[in-house]
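User: Structure please.
Assistant: Input sequence and predicted structure:
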Amino acid sequence: MSANHEQQRTQKAPSRHGVVALICGVLVAGMVGLSFAAVPLYRLYCQVTGYQGTTQRAAKGSDVVLDRIVKVHFDANVAADLPWTFKPVQSSLEVKVGENTLAFYRATNNSNKPIVGSAVFNVTPDAVGPHFNKVQCFCFTEQRLEPGQTVDMPVSFFVDPAFVTDEETKDLSELTLSYSFYPVKTPKKVEGQASVATRGKGG
């Protein structure tokens, strides 16, 4: 009986080792998959919650406008390895809460080759994020600028009326919309640009 028991135990051992190896492999694969999913999931979380000043994307403009005025400041930044000039056309606008507003940013490619850039964005104070809605924005797509080309890029937005009842924002009178442009190393196929005006090379 002892010999038979030892033989059965020896035969089962490889099977157990195989199961353990399989479980470890699944865990490793799962961790790798989660690491790749972390960035888009985090981005989705920010977009839904407005975390860290991430603005919202609206399917249409607002149909409720309040008398409350908010001053919106515009900020622009460019990564060190992107040879563009990028700045807001207007430094600030005073808008009514719920008012559909159009603002512009201007970008110039200062290099001698075509470059594709992509803009990231946020609004401060962070608590404004859930209430700042973009209907259209150049930041939704990659932007390709030819050598020396200058374009005016629009952003259509409104401040949601819930801004005036939120405990964290109801006393605010100013906010800042900020964009930072980065070069795109592997551009997607660009069908068109969000820009509405091309000012010509060096213009």
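The chain is about 25% helix and 35% strand.
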